[in-house]
Amino acid sequence: MQLLRLSPRSRNTLFRGARRCFTASVFLVAHPWATAEAVAIAFSDSHLAKRDEAIVAGQPVCSDLQLAEYTLAVAIGPLWGKVPREPQCRPSETQRLGPADLSSFRVDPAATDLVPTLLHTKAMTRADRGSFLINKEDIHFAHLVVFQSDTAWCAHPCESPTWELAAPKPETGSPYLLLEAAIWRQSRKVTLYQFDPEWQKRARSSYNEVCGGKGWGCPAYEMFRESKKLLSVGPWPISIAEDKDAISAFIADAFAQFFSKVHELAPRASIGLTYNGHGGAADGGLFENSIKAGDAVQLMHRAVEAAGKPFSLLNFGTNCAEGRWNMLAAMYPFADWILASDLKVGGIESQGMKKEESAEMAEAQQRLGDLQTLQKAFEDKAESHHAIKQVIHAREQFWQVMSTPIEGQKLEQSVAAFDTSKFEPFQDLMRRSYQILPEGQRSDFENTVETNNCDVLAAVVFIDGHSGLNVSSSAANASAVSLALISTAHPPALLLFNRTGGRAQVHAASADGYKSQGSGSLQEAFKALRSDYASTQGFFDWPVETSGLGFNYLGWNSAPCDFVTPLGKDAPPPQGGWNDQGLMDPPPKPGRRRWTSRPDLH
After folding, report:
1. Is the pLDDT of residue 588 over 90?
2. What's the maximum distance between 2 C-alpha atoms anywhere in the chain?
3. Could you give the residue ranges of the DSSP H alpha helices within 177-218?
4. Cβ contacts of residue 240 below 8 Å, gap of 6+?
């Protein structure tokens, strides 16, 4: 069971100029039935789904595979511009959309020897959680998960299950509060919901239990879903439909109200925010820049000021390429921890995979999904950093399970946790260190970092090695050793990579060993900021190794790098200025953002 990843030729044909990447991996990790055949069948080029009002005479009962295909299609939305179609079958009275009960799956300490101490203590059972109604003052963690929908996903008023199938719902009495928000592009509304397990059970059986066996959707389902809304803002005026700035302000105002509601429901809880969709511009904008960076900063400032404390966690770890400097610089004042990836997220080709491998992947996805991992950690009242470690550890376990296809397909993946309290000290030290970099080294610094895909650690290693030094050979500078932490599972594990000499040996090192490899004070400050990190670098040679945090690109998804924002406007450029010539304009968009067209699952 697999995620699809298009070949370069197909990707270029289908998505020429597309930038944003949808993280269907979030849903697939939680819902493991997605085969290549499922995606191909579920998204038909020629079929625009229309709901039958009655069961066609002689229509067969759905197979489990057909239900899996349909659930995948409607829960992640339009894929590659294709509309999910309804299966030409009917579910039996015992069949449901969605996965089996996942509550028994936990991160298994026997599954790997990595970080056994991350596993939490005996979990609260379902019976324990259901035996009392928790006081709102005792809620440990409140989690707001955000989705975005449009007419290609489901036509207004969306009368069948879609995104609401994705996240598991906590039991009554859980110390973990889950709220879900939908940005409804088709109705120009933004709505906050709170679903419960019994509601989700009926939603998964909505064909029979809500729609009376007459179809996959019906007007009753919309009422059924909307009965769980807590707040709804909109519609925004149709007059601003093409005004992105006005829509940004409108959506930001809606989320200001939602954050207030979260605080009202869980006044003492730690609060986390997850977006289940594409990455954006990695500039501090939220929800694929539906809320632009300026509005997002104001929104977060208002939310933090009203709550009297920062968010505990901003989870961008399943959004493609949000792990960039400008995102971190914009958001660090408003959260204790930020989870992000500097790469595209997800994507394993399914062709040629054996059934046994598919089953193994399915089991791993059930156990190790981000949403399940966070829910179980916070139901056990874990602290945020502890929960983040479990998410990263679960990713590592998943990659270990899928090591053969990852290595064979050379799938570059990463996830990093940032301790925001360390951002300012690192930024200040980096700026001071760059200021004393010899003038003759500045061009080599710029070229080295841009050769390394604008990787921040590449910049750090260069500065540590050259500040105050006079190294005459620019070739030696260009081939400087890049040093990256590739795992948080051991004492710091180091990967040494010489740009001209190839990969060095991967080995674990103690803290003293880390210093002995040439780490200077700036590298130590980077390690403190990016406190936890994992990637698939250990599985195969990456063409360019990155470390979880990059400077923003000034080109279209490529160098030159934005050095002015991280180093400061007063940072002396190389002779002749920064490499900001010949910048590419963004290619024409193939429509609106994610809600009409989705790039390759990569």
Report:
1. no
2. 83
3. 197-204, 206-209
4. 246, 247, 250
